[in-house]
């Protein structure tokens, strides 16, 4: 079930899953909720938080912490009758062949396992793949050919990948098969430095050559991490040059147990994780730059304007389609924070929370 609900029977065992570590307080709340209602039931917590921080999870008051993948549960399809969704979540593999320091996949799924076929697992026409690294499956070509055939038979309609594709593995043939299999909105990961831009462009070109539209492509970017704000802005400008969107991901440490980030308030590292090389102002400015740039790419316009978005043009001097309104923002330029007076460890604004203008 979803959420904390009183049951119509007395359970002997209650199994609670968990998501990211910074949402641990909700897991603790669920454990307490069911402990109060059913004191004699065994409470087991598993999932991402439980696997990354089992000792901390044990302090929630549960009876047992389950780490890793529940191999017995993997044999059964999810109970889609309990939720209203029009898609099916599916895996062709577990684990990952990479060892990225910022990612917890190797701790949660330490063994890289894979399937040769998924044909018999398909229940719905829309598939969402949750593989950590879909293209790393040594049988990915066979699986894509299965999907192409199933799409021709109209047994599936479209596919999406929750994670970005590993562009180091991508080939022109795989790009073509992804398109023929009905994958939408493909993403490529660009976690490394700006100096990799030529390689990233090569990966984008493979997808474009396979007839994916530029504006439907996204580049995964990790920020608030080791690369400084200025370098991330240079990477953003490259994406603007290529006319592809950015899926930005704010870094949180794998052992962070809370995240109280609020986009419109000035905050400190007491509220959420701020990398020592970043500041609250830089984190929020980069996120804002990405959001506005993505809108420009989707709308195929050369600048962003709040006045355009809110329909307040006549009162603010916008005279025609060939002239820019007074608040026009140009995605092709590096945009630093207007005010950058907070250091990563400053407590000056803590509990003051002055709004950004």
Description:
- There is one protein chain.
- The protein has ten helices and eleven strands.
- The radius of gyration is 23 Å and the shape is globular.
- Among the domains are: 13-65, no CATH class; 73-254, TIM Barrel, CATH 3.20.20.
- The protein is of the alpha/beta class.
- It has helices at residues 24-37, 48-52, 54-58, 105-108, 140-152, 172-180, 197-209, 229-242, 280-299, 306-310; strands at 13-16, 42-45, 64-65, 88-90, 93-94, 113-114, 126-129, 158-161, 187-189, 218-223, 245-250.
- It is 29% helix and 11% strand.
- Which structural class best describes the helix and strand composition? alpha/beta
The CATH homologous superfamily name of the domain at 73-254 equals: Aldolase class I
Order of helices and strands: EHEHHEEEHEEHEHEHEHEHH
Distance between the termini: 42 Å
Q: Could you tell me the number of beta strands?
A: 11
CATH architecture of the domain at 73-254: Alpha-Beta Barrel
**Main sheet record:** 3 strands, parallel
Describe the strand arrangement of the main beta sheet, using strand numbers.
Answer: 1-2-3
Q: Assign an overall shape.
A: globular
Level of helix content? 25-40%
**Radius of gyration, CA atoms, in whole angstroms:** 23 Å
Summarize the topology:
Blueprint: E1 13-16, H1 24-37, E2 42-45, H2 48-52, H3 54-58, E3 64-65, E4 88-90, E5 93-94, H4 105-108, E6 113-114, E7 126-129, H5 140-152, E8 158-161, H6 172-180, E9 187-189, H7 197-209, E10 218-223, H8 229-242, E11 245-250, H9 280-299, H10 306-310
Parallel strand pairs: 1-2, 2-3, 4-7, 7-8, 9-10, 10-11
Antiparallel strand pairs: 5-6
């Amino acid at each position: 079930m979803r959420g904390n609900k009183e049951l119509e029977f007395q359970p002997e065992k209650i199994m609670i899953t968990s998501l990211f570590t910074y949402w641990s307080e909700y897991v603790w709340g669920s454990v307490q909720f069911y402990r109060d209602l059913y004191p004699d039931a065994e409470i087991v917590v598993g999932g991402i938080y439980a696997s990354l921080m089992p000792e901390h999870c044990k302090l929630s008051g549960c009876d047992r912490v389950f780490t890793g993948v529940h191999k017995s549960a993997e044999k059964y399809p999810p109970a889609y009758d309990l939720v209203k969704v029009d898609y099916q979540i599916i895996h062709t593999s577990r684990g990952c062949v990479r060892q990225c320091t910022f990612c917890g996949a190797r701790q949660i799924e330490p063994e890289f396992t894979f399937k040769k076929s998924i044909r018999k697992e398909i229940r719905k026409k829309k598939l969402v793949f949750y593989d950590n690294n879909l293209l790393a499956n040594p049988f990915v070509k066979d699986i894509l050919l299965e999907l192409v055939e199933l799409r021709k038979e109209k047994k599936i309609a479209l596919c999406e990948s929750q994670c970005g594709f590993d562009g180091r593995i991508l080939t022109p043939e795989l790009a073509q098969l992804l398109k023929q299999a009905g994958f939408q909105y493909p993403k490529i990961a660009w976690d490394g430095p700006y100096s990799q831009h030529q390689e990233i462009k090569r990966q984008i070109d493979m997808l474009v050559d396979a007839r994916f539209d530029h504006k439907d492509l996204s580049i995964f970017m990790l920020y608030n991490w080791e690369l400084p704000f200025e370098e991330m802005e240079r990477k953003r400008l490259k994406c603007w040059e290529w006319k592809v969107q950015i899926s930005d991901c704010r870094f949180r440490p794998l052992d962070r147990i809370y995240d109280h980030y609020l986009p419109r308030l000035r905050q400190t590292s007491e509220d959420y994780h701020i990398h020592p090389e970043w500041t609250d102002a830089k984190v929020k400015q980069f996120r804002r730059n990405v959001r506005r740039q993505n809108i420009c790419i989707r709308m195929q316009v050369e600048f962003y304007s709040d006045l355009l978005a809110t329909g307040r043009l006549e009162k603010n001097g916008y005279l025609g389609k060939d002239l820019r309104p007074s608040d026009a923002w140009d995605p092709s330029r590096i945009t630093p924070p207007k005010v950058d007076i907070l250091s990563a460890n400053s407590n000056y604004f803590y509990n003051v929370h002055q709004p950004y203008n």
